[in-house]
Amino acid sequence: MNMEAIYAVDAKNGLSKDGVIPWHSKRDMNFFMNKTMHNVVIMGRKTYLSLPKRPLKNRLNIVLTRDFVVDTQEKNVLFTNNDTIYKDILENRDYYMSMCPSLNPDFKIFFIGGKIIYEKYIPLCETVWLTRIKKDYSCDLFFDYDYSKQFKDEVAIEEDDELKIVKIVKIMKIMKLS
User: Fold this and answer.
1) Quick one: which of 64, 72, 67 has its CA closest to 56?
2) What pLDDT score was predicted for residue 97?
3) Taking CA 100 as the corner, what is the angle to CA 38 and CA 32, rounded to the nearest 5 degrees?
4) Within its chain, how far is the Cα of 11 from the centroid?
5) CA dist 49 to 15, 44, 66, 85, Å?
6) What is the pLDDT of residue 174?
7) ∠ CA 159-164-170 to the nearest 5 degrees?
8) Which residues, 6+ apart, have CB-to-CB distance to 108 below 8 Å?
9) pLDDT, mean of residues 34-57
């Protein structure tokens, strides 16, 4: 299906504090940018409004919301209350590529937050990219997903003193390859 999730948490599975990401990690931001560039990103309204620069450039930004607050004239952002928009995107790839010409012809859909989006859509994803920031940032919103039933153990992609980036792959996908 070409759907993935990407997110970061602190040492205590904190996702955000006061509605924003409290850490500033260039490595994590570069990883996020490189993974999602020229792809579709789906997020909730609060995540969209928390972005320092919006919409995210060179990506089709889909904002799931019941409140249609349009604060941009950019063509690469779509506000919708259709929580199955991902199906339409996958079935009508050419249409969405015309909306955002910078999309890769074989683009993926990335779910990029927040907590409610992750809870709802991670079960549909083939891969999850998780950055574990090794410091506690006293977050007030937490996300700790139980991957044990649907996903294979995580594989470390990068690690240093600041963070660890892991790839978590759906079990069914692994079984098809063997």
Assistant:
1) 72
2) 94
3) 25
4) 19
5) 15, 9, 14, 20
6) 43
7) 115
8) 2, 3, 4, 39, 40
9) 95
Does 25 have pLDDT greater than 80?
yes
Is the omega angle on the peptide bond into residue 22 within 30 degrees of 0, that is, cis?
Answer: no
- Please provide the DSSP assignment of the chain as one string: --EEEEEEE-TT-EEEBTTB-----HHHHHHHHHHHTTSEEEEEHHHHHH-SSSSPTTSEEEEE-SS-------TTEEEE--TTHHHHHHHTHHHHHHH-TTS-TT--EEE---HHHHHHHGGG-SEEEEEEESS----SEE-----TTTBPPPEEEEE-SSEEEEEEEBHHHHHHH-
Q: What is the pLDDT of residue 175?
A: 46
What local confidence, expressed as pLDDT, does residue 26 receive? Answer: 96
CATH of domain 3-177: 3.40.430.10
Contact 23, 2 (CB under 8 A): no
Strand order in the sheet with 163-169: 77-80, 60-64, 40-44, 109-111, 3-9, 127-133, 163-169, 155-159
Q: What is the mean pLDDT of residues 153-169?
A: 94
